[in-house]
Amino acid sequence: MRGFTLIELVIVACILAILAGIAIPRLATSLAWRRVESAALRVCNDLRLAARYAKQRSASQTVSFDATANSYQLVGRPDLDHPGSEYTVLLGQPPYEVAIVSADFGGDGSVVFDGFGVPDSGGSVIIKAGKHRVIVTLDAATGQTGVETSVVPG
Questions:
Q1: May I ask the CATH class of domain 6-151?
Q2: Could you state, in order of their start, the residue ranges of all structural domains in the chain?
């Protein structure tokens, strides 16, 4: 029975190292893209949720973004998983692990939906992970949300 020589094992180990060197950066890029994409979808859905809450209650609903804490909250709403605490989404922590670059809704980081679900102003939230950047937009007239994606050069 023939075994493997040391040279054959070293060659196989080198080939595996080269393949890993190629795959790991691609995996990291893909993971960053998935994080920023899922965070953007979460922001879009929560803006829609806030508009729906405002309509259901016929009362205003505020969504307040904090770029320094990489978070936002639906002011006055209980968390769906923890009813004793306020609805807060921490985008800087798992599973998202992204950064809010900026949030601007008519000059501030908050948007208020009136009792008809119409926002007081349009605006955008810029979210970044690695080289991937997503801009979540809110149209002032329709209340519709949208997502623009880009890759930051460099």
A1: alpha beta
A2: 6-151
